[in-house]
Design goal:
- The protein is mainly alpha-helical.
- The protein contains ten helices and no strands.
- The longest helix has 23 residues, at 169-191.
- The protein is globular and about 50 Å long.
Amino acid sequence: IVSRDWSSDVCSSDLYKDLGEIDLAKAAFQQSIRMDPKHKESHLELGNLYYNMGKYIYAALGFGDVVYLDPQDLDARYMQGLSYFNAQEWGLAASVWEDLLHYQSQHPIVRNLLPQAYYILAIEYNRLGEPSLGRTSFEKALSVNSNSYAWLPGAFRTLGKYYQEKGMHKESLVAYQERSEEHTSELQSRETI
């Protein structure tokens, strides 16, 4: 039996990546995975490569493979959720981050981003005529982090950008106005302290 040194495949993939040869790096990572589907580092690097390329769904799938191989890898769980969040897959991001909180209930970044995902889901459910689902999503946001001052401005900003990218200019304007009003209210409350 011949032992295979997978680190050389990962090193060549990293070399391609460093040289800006992204397609060659991707092919080398994929080859490494085909040779040993359980090689966690190759999945992780492929996920990172896709993430840096802005191919967030592919990145989420790569990080998901890492989580499948090592359910305790909280960084991969976080990145899988962030990839879905950046791909505007709010429900998938929420699901992944809910799982992460079972492992690390006080993850500071997830306790800020997960309520944003739930808030966006709430707004979308309301917009699509599903107010009970909207209320449930908003309640979930508050159950994760009741300090809405910490996460609501980010949710308004993300929602405004999302609607702007979708050509939904009226909705985008409303989200940005809500963010502006929230910011003004926050400044006024600081002045009274």
